[in-house]
Amino acid sequence: MQDYNFDERFEHYPIAMAYVPWQHLSQIYENLEEAFEIGTIFPELDKPFTGRRVIS
What's the pLDDT tens digit per position in 4-19? Predict the structure, then answer.
């Protein structure tokens, strides 16, 4: 079984484009120990993982 066709000419494909919106971060944690434990100094980026099991 062949996964990829390496005979294709990749120059015929367009270059990918990405959109990344600007982030306006206005606050920082004053307690750097807390920021280190959370993983960011910006409270706006503090998004705790609240994953749930997906049952299909």
Answer: 665 666 677 777 888 8
Instruction: Specify burial of residue 43 (Cβ count, 10 A radius: 0-12, 13-18, 19+).
Output: middle
Domain boundaries, the chain: 6-45
- Between CA 46 and CA 24 the distance in angstroms is 14
Provide the greatest CA pair distance for the chain: 57
> What's the Cα-to-Cα distance from 48 to each of 6, 17, 38, 52, rounded to whole Å?
42, 29, 9, 13
pTM: 0.47
Q: How far apart are CA 44 and CA 32, in angstroms?
A: 15
Q: How far apart are CA 1 and CA 21, in angstroms?
A: 41
